[in-house]
Specification:
CATH class of the largest domain: Alpha Beta
CATH architecture of the largest domain: 3-Layer(aba) Sandwich
Shape: globular
Distance between the termini: 27 Å
CATH topology of the largest domain: Rossmann fold
Number of domains: 2
Helix content: 25-40%
Order of helices and strands: HEEEEHEHHEHEHHHEEHHHHHHEHEHH
Radius of gyration: 22 Å
Number of strands: 11
Length: 475
């Protein structure tokens, strides 16, 4: 899931109020603009613009909104390969905020814009798109609002957007799927490929279900399928992910020696934090703080997790404190409009706690995940369709890349979901964490070869063995 939020930049300098003026029944348009961001040192040609569409399709009185787009031209374009449309995670993340950094990354350039153009967009409601449903001052993580105050602030923020005329029912995966098709048409692209990461794979699923025209091939990195439950079973997924890391530590001599009996000791710390807030170093922390940290850390930093867990066990809360200071990485409104439409209506608030009774680490996430339900109960995102919870069935060639260690998108979900994708290929990467392509040279090689010919089996010979020991950082 994309970890950065971005307050709407002035691409085109239109405000929310000016976007909501006269009635529109116009066709989608693409208007070129200057690129927002520091592209100095980027050696690729990048063109930027806005896809301008009706917020509510089919409504002649709809406001017009902007979807920010950046087109990155390939370093060595190969004839016959269509452009790749990149779909960021979250929901509530941004593709354009970190794009200059991506294009300066030697690792990511192994497949990004190597021989295909790549098209990045900030999905409607977030990033550099307008409006941006950001809620300044409210915190939100994948585990949910970390306090009642944050939950109330998000509700008030969303209701304020509604009062300004924003139609919250139009900020979800189905609408983004239609935006992608509108972009394909206005750019006159007969074919496109898709690359999605984390919740971006949920957008890919919506495209493959609702708007598959012109899609040649799809890569899902750290997949989140429509039929999965976000909150019910969510605490256990986090706990299981941490268990995997601790078990891997236990079989590496150096790690086991430095951090003995991690599982029992972490359970003891979790039970203590669940009993009440902890005041350490003059600051007070809650069970929500620890739970959110554990989920975030096991997403991306499994290699240092045993070291940092040991710090916490010893009473040093610096890892948690650093996390608490960085919890404003989502466009909160966009996050909630998606979840309240596509996930939470199909889940039971009371069932979030099911199975956590004997697992204090899992219990750390229960209350914050239940707050997601509370926010959804307080806002109106329009009619709900069971189609949004149905498994995908498609014949579009799809490559699934799943990490062995992933508290949000565990590999079992990928294996189950892939059954509906005719001829799909599933790659589970040992010792990898969320966002497989970021840290795996083998995964990057596989992605590029798949896009070059999605009809052929990918070469898995570079993947680590299933029993390969995990590397840990101790300093």
């Amino acid at each position: 899931m994309s970890r950065l939020s971005w307050i709407a930049a002035a691409l085109g300098a239109l405000t929310l109020s000016s976007l909501g003026g006269a009635a529109h029944a116009a066709a989608p348009q693409f208007k070129r603009t200057a690129c927002a961001g520091d592209y100095k040192g980027v050696d690729l040609k990048v063109e930027c613009g806005n896809l301008v569409v009706d917020e509510t399709r089919g409504d002649p009185k709809s406001r017009r909104i902007k979807v920010a787009v950046a087109i990155v031209h390939a370093a060595q374009p190969k004839a016959g390969l269509p452009p790749v449309v990149f779909l960021h995670g979250g929901p509530g993340g941004s593709a354009l905020a970190g794009l200059p950094r991506t294009l300066k990354s030697k690792a990511l350039r192994e497949f990004v814009a190597a021989d295909q153009d790549w098209i990045y967009l900030d999905q409607r409601g977030g990033g550099q798109s307008e409006p941006n449903l950001d809620c300044p001052g409210a915190n939100l993580t994948d585990a949910g609002p970390p306090s009642e105050k944050d939950a109330r602030a998000i509700v008030a923020c969303l209701k304020a957007f509604q009062a300004k005329g924003v139609n919250l029912s139009r900020y979800n995966a189905v609408e983004v799927a239609q935006d992608v098709q509108d972009l394909r048409k206005v750019l006159k692209l007969p074919l496109i490929d898709l690359f999605g990461g984390s919740y971006g794979t949920r957008i890919e699923a919506a495209i493959q279900t609702h708007a598959p025209q012109g899609v040649r091939a799809v890569v899902q990195d750290s997949p989140w399928p429509p039929e999965a439950d976000w909150t019910v079973g969510g605490p256990a997924m986090v706990s299981n992910s941490i268990d995997i890391v601790m078990a891997k530590c236990a079989v590496v001599a150096e790690c086991a020696k430095r951090y003995p009996d991690l599982k029992a000791k972490l359970a003891g710390v979790a039970a203590r934090w669940l009993a009440g807030p902890q005041t350490i170093g003059g600051k007070t922390y809650t069970a929500d703080d620890l739970g959110g940290y554990l989920m975030d850390a096991s997403y991306f930093t499994a290699g240092v997790l045993p070291r940092d867990l040991w710090k916490i066990i010893q009473g040093e809360v610096a890892p948690v404190a650093a996390f608490v200071e960085s919890r404003d990485y989502y466009s909160e409104g966009q996050f909630m409009t998606h979840l309240c439409k596509e996930e939470i209506p199909f889940e039971d608030r009371s069932a979030v706690a099911t199975g956590t009774e004997t697992d204090p680490v899992a219990r750390l996430m229960v209350v914050s995940m239940q707050r997601i339900h509370d926010v959804c109960a307080a806002i109106d995102v329009g009619p709900i369709s069971k189609v949004e919870q149905a498994p995908v069935k498609t014949a579009i060639p799809t490559l699934f890349l799943a990490a062995e260690i992933d508290p949000g998108c565990p590999p079992d979900l990928t294996r189950a979901a892939a059954k509906g994708y005719q001829g799909s290929q599933v790659v589970i990467v040992t010792n990898a964490t969320h966002g497989v392509s970021r840290n795996s040279p083998c995964a990057r090689k596989i992605i590029r070869s798949f896009f070059q010919d999605p009809t052929q089996p990918v070469d898995r010979s570079c993947l680590p063995a299933a029993d390969a020991p995990m590397g840990f950082t101790y300093k």
